[in-house]
Amino acid sequence: MFIEHVNLTVSNLMRSADFYRRLFGWSVRWQGATKDGTPAAHLGDERCYLALFEAPKPGRWSIDYEAVGFNHFGMVVDDLDAMKRRLGELGVEHGDEQDYEPGRRVYFIDPDGIEVELVQYETALTT
Questions:
Q1: Identical fold between 1-56 and 71-127
Q2: Is 86 exposed, middle or buried (0-12, 13-18, 19+ CB in 10 A)?
């Protein structure tokens, strides 16, 4: 079992799609509009993807670890140091770094204020 996709509402679809495509090297699996006309795109690979939907109203996500709700999503990466360099190339400063079993992690904030965790495990995951 695995998570197939994460659905994010973003303030600017093209900006977010470009950011995640450049960060992860993903391709656009689908782009268009929802049945109500909302601009949307799916970015990822054959196994998993981010579903991005453009918000009809301006706003910004706020992270609140003390309230019920979404806090962040995590992505397994093969080379955490390379991903930290890529974040720098994209002009994104990463935040907290943690190293505890079973892997190393770094956190950053995307263009809409959504927290993302990148984790590298010592042993490769198989499923």
A1: yes
A2: middle
Instruction: Fold for 71-127, please state it.
Output: 2,3-Dihydroxybiphenyl 1,2-Dioxygenase; domain 1 (3.10.180)
**Distance in angstroms (rounded) separating the CA atoms of residues 98 and 103:** 8
- Residue-range domain boundaries for the chain: 1-56, 71-127
DSSP states along 91-111: T--EEEEEEETTEEEEEEE-T
Give the pLDDT confidence of 88-116 residue by residue, as tens digits.
999 999 888 988 889 999 999 999 999 99
Say yes or no: domain 1-56 is CATH 3.40.30.10.
Answer: no
Q: Rounded to 10 degrees, what is the CA torsion of 46, 106, 100, 43? A: -10
pLDDT in tens, 37-58: 999 999 999 999 999 999 988 8
Please indicate, yes or no, whether the overall pTM of this predicted structure exceeds 0.85.
yes
90-96, Cβ contacts within 8 angstroms, sequence gap of 24 or more:
90/19, 90/22, 90/23
Question: How do beta strands 27-33 and 39-44 pair?
Answer: antiparallel
